[in-house]
Design a protein that fits this description.
Layout: H1 2-23, E1 32-38, H2 39-49, H3 67-81, E2 87-93, H4 96-105, E3 110-111, E4 115-116, E5 126-128, E6 138-144, H5 149-152, H6 157-161, E7 164-167, H7 172-180, E8 185-188, H8 192-200, E9 207-210, E10 227-228, E11 232-236, E12 240-241, E13 243-245, H9 251-268, H10 270-277, E14 289-290
Parallel strand pairs: 1-2, 1-3, 7-8, 11-14
Antiparallel strand pairs: 4-12, 5-13, 6-9, 6-10, 6-11
Helix pairs in contact: 2-3, 3-9
């Protein structure tokens, strides 16, 4: 009788342990994590990495570096610091809406770039990471082409209001900021590439973008050279976080590892360094006039 009882206790213990393991599945080297990023980010990420190991990077400057690109590096570093030892496969999507759809469905375990907190209210579908960009740290420039003298000669909010801005309603912080500026002309389009092309063709005067790490703060998305309107900037309110899918079986393990890794990156000063090296936290514009 004692032997039977002992056997039952052992069996129950093993079943309980297996149940706990199933509730909190570990992510192993055999697993593959699918992370979705925009097409242009994947392209610039390849340029920035140039075959390097993302886990060995502590200098986030260089060709291709910008906020979106270094966030792809930071994600991999955070996951590794959080204990995840799995291969990562990046897939691309053409718009923010498509990225969120892939994460909602669980086809991607997470989005590879940070997202404004007020866009992540689907608590039944998404885990939300700890903030990587705190409230009030996001500053943006008014980017235009060098041929657009009207935009480049703007000196005040009143001047800017006379220009044509382009953005996306899906980018809530940008859209709300431009509306708060009471622009006379505000054009809505879905894709980033469309915004750039509209500015290039003169259909819009400027778009909002983070300041870049280049000497003159310029950058060349979609083959179009953009420069900031000098001495003017805007402040976007809100914090930014990573979104992880609750419908993906790896989601719980990923969010736990990610938050652990983000904390370590903050403690090491690497999160701040990455955003500074990429030009996102930019001392060159510290004294510029924040028009909103």
């Amino acid at each position: 009788m004692k032997k039977i009882l002992l056997l039952l206790i052992t069996l129950i213990t093993h079943v309980s342990a297996a149940a706990v393991e199933n509730q909190h599945p570990s992510i192993t080297q055999r697993d593959e994590l699918i992370i979705v990023i925009p097409k242009d980010v994947k392209r610039d990420y390849a340029v920035f990495m140039h075959g390097r190991d993302p886990l060995q990077i502590s200098d986030y400057c260089g060709s291709g570096s910008r906020r979106d690109v270094v966030e792809v590096v930071l994600i991999q570093q955070a996951l590794a610091l959080g204990g995840v030892d799995a291969s990562i496969r990046f897939i691309v999507a053409s718009s923010h809406a498509r990225i969120i759809k892939l994460v909602h469905s669980g086809k991607a375990v997470m989005a590879g770039n940070s997202i404004w907190r007020d866009l992540l209210d689907d608590s039944d579908l998404l885990y939300v990471s700890d903030p990587v960009i705190e409230n009030g740290r996001f500053e943006a420039g008014l980017y235009t082409i060098s041929e657009n003298k009207k935009a480049l000669n703007a000196k005040s909010l009143a001047d800017v209001r006379r220009l044509r801005a382009v953005s996306s309603k899906a980018w809530s912080a940008d859209w709300q900021t431009l509306n708060a500026m009471k622009m006379n002309s505000l054009i809505n389009t879905v894709k980033w590439s469309s915004m750039v092309k509209m500015v290039a063709k003169g259909r819009a005067d400027f778009l909002l973008a983070p300041f870049q790490p280049s000497d003159d703060l310029s950058f060349t998305p979609e083959g179009v050279h953009l420069v900031p309107v000098p001495e003017l900037k805007v402040g976007l309110q809100g914090s930014r976080h990573f979104a992880v899918s609750k419908r993906n079986g790896q989601g719980e393990g990923v969010i736990n590892a990610l938050n652990k890794g983000i904390k370590i990156l903050k403690e090491k000063g690497l999160l701040e360094k990455a955003y500074t090296d990429s030009g996102f936290f930019n001392n060159q514009v510290k004294s510029w006039d924040k028009i909103i």
